[in-house]
Every structure is written in C-alpha cells, then in structure tokens.
Automatic annotation (TrEMBL):
Keyword Cell inner membrane: no
Modified residues (N6-(pyridoxal phosphate)lysine): K261
Source organism phylogeny: Bacteria, Pseudomonadati, Bacteroidota, Flavobacteriia, Flavobacteriales
NCBIfam families reported for this sequence: PRK13238.1, tyr_phenol_ly
Originating organism: Chryseobacterium salivictor
EC numbers, comma separated: 4.1.99.2
Protein name, as recorded: Tyrosine phenol-lyase
HAMAP family reported for this sequence: Tyr_phenol_lyase
GO biological processes: tyrosine metabolic process
UniProt keyword S-adenosyl-L-methionine present: no
C-alpha cells in the first residue's frame, strides 16, 4: 500500500540561477559590527540566505520578464497602465486605479485625502509605514485586532480578525464622524502573517455601512489570506483563490497595494478605489508625489510585469507551493523546539524572542539581538519585529508591544527546500546557546521608522 502523500512541489522549473556568496564567521562578525547590529544595514553581498523581507525580493516568471520587453515608456497614456487597470478590475473588482511607486506611496495619498487632524483610524494591528502616514496626516491610530493576535501561542485560525466591540467603543467615545476609515489588513504582518476570515470581513462591512464609515483594505498579501480562507473557513473549500480574492475586495471601499509582495515584482504598487470623488482627488495628488496618473512613479515595463504578476498570484498551484514552503520551515522549527508564532502564517515564520531569550529585557531589544545572532551563525538575514519596529508615541515613550518577534520572511519562488533545512538547523544551533546571548543598546535613533537605520552595540 502506497503511503499517503501531502507533499507540495514548486509549480515551476529553474531557468537561471544567481550565485550566493559564502562568508566565514569572522567576516560575518565584522560585517555585523559595521552595520551596528542592524540587519537592514548589512550589505547584500555579505548575506547568504536573505529573509529580510518578501517585498520586491521575489523571482519573476518568464512571462513577466517577456512583459518587461513590452514596456510602453510614453510619459502619458502608456498602454501598460491600461493593462494594469484591466487586471485590477478583473482580479480585484475595483473601478478606479492610481498607480504608485510602491505601497507606501498609496498609503501617503490615501492618508492625506481621508484623514483630518484629530481623526481616529482603527486598524487590525499597526503596520509601521501605514501608521506613520496616518499620524503625519494628523490621525490617531487605534488597534482593534482581536486579543488572540497578541498571544503568540494561541491557535485561533484567524488571528487577524477585527474586534467589532473595540470599534464600537471608539464610535461611542468619538462618534462615527471622527472615524476617518477602518483600515483592514489581510494576513496581518506584525501578528505573524495571520489571516482575516471572510465572516469577519462581512461583519465589518455590515457594521460600517450602517454607520457611514468606509473600509480601506491593505491588500498587499491578499492571495495568501484567500488561501487560508479556502483551507480553514467553512463554505470556501470548493472556491478558487481568485473567487475568494474578489469577494474579500467586495466588502471594502478601496485598497492600498504593494505589488512587491503578491504580484511578484521588484517595484510597484497602487491605490484602488470605488468612490469617484476620492479617486479624482487621488489622481490629482499622485501627480505631486509620484508622477502622472498613468504611470505613478513606475516605468511602463514595471506596470506590465505587475499586471501579469497579479494574474499569476491567484493561481492555485502557485499559492499551494508558496504557503507550503513557509509551513515546511515552520514545522522544522517546531521539531527543533524553537518557539514560533502559531498558527504558521502566510509570508514567513515569526520566532518569539521573548520565549527564546526570556533573560533579556524588552528594553534591551531581544528580537534585534536575536536577529544579529542568527546572521552570525550562518549568514541568514532576518529582521526584528518588536520594540524597535514599534517606535515611540507622541510623548517620546517607547511602545512596548506584547509581541517581540524575529521575522523569517520567505521570498516567493526564490529558495529551495534545502535552504529551508539550512535555516531551521542554524536557528536550532542558536537556540542551543540562547543563554549566552545578551541584549543591545541603541546608540543611534533616526526620527522616523527607526528600525530601518538605527544602530546598536552589545551590552
């Protein structure tokens, strides 16, 4: 009798390779010192396996590369813009498109249009650039994610869900007219890539329609969220990823999108809308910050690659292999006893630094220290998602998030299963010597988004 097989395999074959540089422990030690113990400041050539982010680090398909040769680089009215507009309408269902150079360009424009000083912006956990744009526009972010999201050990399947009781408290306190919009992110990044259920999205839509509040979607990893709905939520097992993606969007009024994730490109994003008046204002504002409304800071070839990538992102076999690779790494981590956020999320593995390094105070930046140690062991670059990323409040005080995580982000279509084995084994070695790891002291802190450029030294 043949054994049952649940294995996944990549739905592609490799046509070209990029050679990686192997480094010695002494070389990595010097590189980390020069980078101020901040993995963002490491040179790419000093990294063996790069898990810093899945943003713009994906491998494009042969169809996308061929599309790059079809770039219409006209300043106005590029045909590639209209291809992208068609893809957004067909796959996501939004009526109006404003291209931007990447997701944060769309966040900036949306915030300037929709937020007035003093407005409240509820969201299912903050994301760094999103919250900063909201705050720079005068808004006040409030976290309305369910409590389970702040518990790394909770096995609740949809930890990205919005807690409507928390939203109602804000409405009661400030009034619906003070709510700029509800920002709903799918596969919530800082919770560990945790999905939102369709039932929750419907509930948010019903609640907001009754009170005249708009819902804006951060749809950067929407196809991954759709996969989790397909696999975990009753009534969706027989629906396609594409069908679920479109239904998610139908419960929102607009969306910001970083094409550098789901759409498998190296640069690009957009703001998608259903309200013509907001679109008209955004179309005017994009000219100021990004470029003409038919290119938004992008070359025609980039828009073409993104339009092709949008279609590829909702292919069933692609998403099965994408999430399958993440799960493979997560399961290996668990086998070695490494504490990770569960359930395993969509775009990476999130190691719980508080459990990994319980002897290191959060004010001594345990996740930052752990990311440095992981690089030292085998040249694997990860990133901190904890107190450093959380930043400071308006009074200059450090936020102290409940989650103190190291993110192992898996680029799409880039690494093999053997790379996942190396990553898990290296992390296990660091875990074995975890009691020897010390915290860090911040010696340089930039004004905004400090995790990108801050520098540290060992205590």
């Amino acid at each position: 009798m043949l054994p049952k097989r649940d294995s996944w395999a990549e739905p592609y074959k490799i046509k070209m390779v990029e050679l990686l540089k192997m480094t010695t422990p002494s070389q990595r030690k010097e590189a980390l010192k020069q980078a101020g113990f901040n993995t963002f400041l490491l040179k790419s050539e000093d990294v063996y396996i790069d898990l810093l982010t899945d943003s713009g680090t994906n491998a494009m398909s042969d169809r996308q590369w061929s599309g790059m040769m079809l770039g219409d680089e006209a300043y106005a009215g590029s045909k590639n813009y209209y291809h992208l507009e068609e893809a957004v309408k067909e796959v996501y269902g939004y009526q109006y498109l404003v291209p931007t150079h990447q997701g944060r360009g769309a966040e900036n424009i949306l915030s300037q249009i929709m937020i007035k000083p003093g407005d409240i912006v509820p969201g299912n956990m903050y994301f760094t650039t999103t919250r900063l744009h909201q705050e720079l526009a005068g808004g006040v972010f409030h976290d309305v994610i369910i409590d389970e999201a702040h518990d790394s050990a909770s096995d609740f399947p949809f930890k990205g869900n919005v807690d409507l009781n928390k939203v109602e408290k804000l409405v009661q306190e400030y009034g619906a007219e003070k709510i700029a919009y509800i920002c709903v992110a799918v596969t919530v990044n800082l919770a560990g890539g945790q999905p939102v259920s369709m039932e929750n999205l419907k509930g948010v839509r019903n609640y907001t329609q009754e009170r005249g509040i708009k819902v804006m979607l951060d749809m950067t990893r929407i196809a991954e969220n759709a996969y989790f709905i397909q696999q975990k939520e009753e009534g969706y097992r027989l629906k396609t990823i594409a069908e679920i993606v479109k239904e998610i969007c139908s419960y929102t009024d607009g969306a910001t999108f970083s094409g550098k994730k789901d759409a498998l490109v190296n640069i690009g994003g957009f703001l998608a809308l259903n309200d013509y008046d907001i679109f008209e204002e955004a179309r005017n504002l994009v000219v100021v910050y990004e470029g003409l409304h038919t290119y938004g800071g992008l070359a025609g070839r980039d828009m073409e690659a993104m339009s092709i990538g949008i279609y590829e992102s909702v292919q069933e076999e692609h998403m099965k292999a994408r999430i399958g690779q993440v799960f493979y790494l997560g399961d290996k981590m668990k086998e070695f006893g490494v504490p990770i956020v569960t359930p395993i999320g969509g775009h990476g593995i999130f190691v719980d630094a508080k459990q990994f390094l319980p002897h290191v105070s959060q004010d001594d930046f345990p996740a930052q220290a752990l990311a440095a140690e992981i690089y030292l062991d085998a040249g694997i670059r990860t990133m901190e998602r904890g107190i450093v990323s959380a930043g400071r409040n308006s009074k200059g005080e450090n936020y102290h998030p409940k989650l103190e995580l190291v993110r192992f982000t898996i680029p799409r279509r880039v690494y093999t299963q053997a790379h996942m084995d190396v990553i898990a084994e290296s992390t296990a070695r660091v875990y074995e010597r975890r009691n020897q790891i010390k915290g860090l002291k911040m010696i340089y802190e930039p004004k905004y988004l400090r995790f990108f450029q801050a520098r540290f030294e060992q205590l």
